[in-house]
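Predict the 3D structure for this chain.
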Amino acid sequence: MKISKTIFAIIFMCPMVHAFSQSYSDFIVIDEIVENITQLKAEFGDQPNVYWTDGTSLHAIKQISNAAELLQIENLHIYVATKPGAIVFNSIAITTINVDDLAEELKEWSNVVANQVVIHSEVVFTGDEGNLLKQRLEEITGLVFTTQN
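Done. Predicted structure below.
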């Protein structure tokens, strides 16, 4: 009789465990001044895992935190204008000069991102300023920051 109760418990409990398990997916952020906005709009449209930042409301870091607040994100992908050592949103730029001032807001990302933040840029973490920015972002958030084209 114990075996049948055990089997029943396994059969009954497994679907419940699956129902309450956490599901992580990638979250995509696109700033309105990114260079290839038309192409990105065609590619991503109004998908539920895509957020479009704008320069008319809160600055982009807070917009991202608010949009991602209740999500469980594997990788946070950010399409934004960049230059070596600077992530340039329409409403704010993250540089080595102000990254420490933005630390509390950037730390919020670590509450929802499980893996890494991917900045879609070829140049943001190049040179001394870029390397320093990457280092500070990783120290502040505890997340890995990478780039991808």
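Residues 22-148 form a domain with the Rossmann fold fold (CATH 3.40.50).
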